[in-house]
User: What shape does this take?
Amino acid sequence: MKVILHDLDRQYDNMLESRCDRLITADGKYAPCQGCFGCWTKHPAECFMNDKLRQICRVIGQADEMVIITRNVYGEYSPEVKNVLDRSIGTSTPFSTYRGHQMHHTLRYGKHPLWKVIVYGEISEEEKETFRYRAQRNAVNDGYETSEVLFISDLKKLEALV
Assistant: This one.
């Protein structure tokens, strides 16, 4: 299953929907993570907040290919995208294991092939390095075998990359 998470205007929704199995719009119309860890323990992979991100752990956890389209904010995901990713902590369990010679949380849904990040907007070389590092770490934490980061200055090029 291919999942696309984006912070773009609604005008891109139709084009993106035709290229994935599930589209998540990071529009900020949801509550931020409360840090209760209920999605880990009380009701696994389900958030207690009854909004559009209630099932986000299951959606992201079952993605074979996770594509994130975000504007650059000082070398990091936009706040809207970051909030969605924060709400998906239930893709793993509270238990720990070794992956890549490091301690990580046990995956609830197993391994996946690709974590892809498409970054748009002005970006410095230092911010690019930060994004590459962040994507690689997110891929390891969420059980993705490969991470890829693409930088575009013109959203007209987006259609060819998704």
Notes: The helical segments are 13-17, 56-61, 79-86, 125-141, 158-161. Residues 125-141 form the longest helix (17 residues). The domain at 2-161 is CATH 3.40.50.360 (Rossmann fold). Residues 117 and 149 are 5 Å apart (CA to CA).
